[in-house]
Design brief:
Layout lengths: L3 H10 L2 E4 L1 H14 L40 E2 L18 H13 L9 E3 L19 E10 L3 H10 L6 E10 L2 E10 L8 E12 L5 E11 L15 E8 L6 E7 L2 H12 L7 E4 L8 E8 L8 E5 L4 E6 L2 E7 L3 H8 L7
Parallel strand pairs: 1-11
Antiparallel strand pairs: 2-5, 3-4, 4-8, 5-6, 6-7, 7-8, 9-10, 9-12, 12-13, 13-14, 14-15
Length: about 350
């Protein structure tokens, strides 16, 4: 028997945290209070692998840095890459090792201005963090720092006109205080397919004036990794029926409508789509507040319409999928386009 109340709790607790608009404001305030010394422009870097409704500032759970959007600064939008070129080929076997290898390969692609010298000493506070980091916990960030006799403006111009082959500049911005620019940021991404265990990758360049003249140049290879899908989270080939249910307000609410999908092709397509979903990356998601009419979709995968389900999935309102295997909660998945697909099967129109 599936404990739907437990599934509802798990949807909000494991491993993705959903935050209402009010909670988002509180989280943002805590970060601003803690990091008021750094007011930086926001580069809106959203991982397109994730289906996230952003209603507030992005709260960062990082390897070493935070990012705060400050309206007083100006920047051009960026989109963090969900793909990369051959730099992702032949990666090491584990997710973390893959991320480590890719981060190093990203760093190796930096094109440096003439006279740049690698620096290994103490850094000024303004360079303790990269200009931008994604709001993911599973973050690998490898960095290198150089100094150059050229001005910060000249270095910014050089980097923008010397993007590595096969890459694109996906964002740029600046940050500072009291009308004085302290750092410049440039985000470089590599179009192309990513390994299944890599959620996003980017090469982030941070440039700052040097007190002794010239400029600092910091490069970060930033890679967010995800766990591999567990074998027991895959619907077995013997399951050929999917029972779909809609519940309003919570995953444990009474069934509002349901449908048994027994058509072989439709069921097979739905199972294939579910089996292809990636594991969710831990972190905070900012979502619209739920209400008594918020739809949750339950999918029961079974051999026949009357057999007990081998696997139950609950598609939440904020892009996450809770998975229950024989009553045990498994790692959450990213919903992708599964939610609108299920809503269409049930005949739900409008916002799903």
């Amino acid at each position: 028997m599936i404990d739907l109340e437990a599934a509802g709790r798990a949807l909000n607790e494991h491993p993705v945290i959903d935050a209402t608009p009010a909670e988002a404001v509180m989280a943002r305030g805590a970060l601003v209070a803690r990091h008021d010394r750094r007011r930086r422009a926001g580069i809106a870097a959203t991982c397109s692998v994730l289906v996230i409704a952003v209603v507030g500032a992005l709260v960062v759970h990082g390897h070493q840095g935070e990012r705060i959007n400050v309206a007083a600064s100006t920047s051009t939008p960026s989109s963090r890459a969900t793909s990369t070129t051959a730099v992702a080929d032949h990666l090491a076997p584990t997710p973390v090792a893959q991320a480590e290898t890719l981060a190093d390969r990203l760093l190796a692609r930096v094109v440096l201005p003439d006279g740049a010298r690698e620096y290994h000493g103490a850094l000024p506070p303004i360079l303790h963090d990269p200009f931008e980091q994604p709001q993911k916990i599973n973050l690998v960030d490898h960095d290198k720092v150089w100094t150059t006799s050229q001005t910060a403006d000249a270095v910014v111009s050089f980097i923008k006109t010397h993007v590595p082959a096969g890459a694109v500049q996906s964002g740029a911005g600046s940050s500072g205080r009291y009308g004085v620019i302290e750092t410049y940021g440039i985000v470089i991404t590599f179009p192309g397919p990513l390994p299944a265990t890599i959620a996003s990758s980017a090469l982030v360049i941070t440039i700052a004036p040097h007190d002794g003249g010239g400029a600092w140049l910091r490069a970060d290879g930033e890679v967010v990794w995800r766990d591999r899908r567990a074998a027991d989270e895959i619907v077995p080939a013997t399951d050929r029926v999917v029972t779909v249910r809609e519940r309003l307000g919570s995953a444990a609410a009474p069934v509002a409508r349901s449908k048994v999908v027994a058509d072989a092709k439709v069921a097979a397509d739905l199972i294939a789509e579910f089996n292809a979903l990636p594991v969710a990356v831990p972190g905070i998601r900012f979502c619209p507040a739920e209400s008594s009419t918020t739809p949750f979709y339950e999918l029961d995968f079974s051999r026949t319409a009357t057999a007990s389900p081998d696997l139950v999935a609950v598609v939440g309102y904020c892009g996450g999928v809770t998975v229950m295997v024989h009553g045990q909660t498994r790692p959450a998945l990213e919903a992708g386009l599964l939610r609108p697909r299920v809503a269409a099967l049930l005949g739900v129109t409008g916002s799903a």
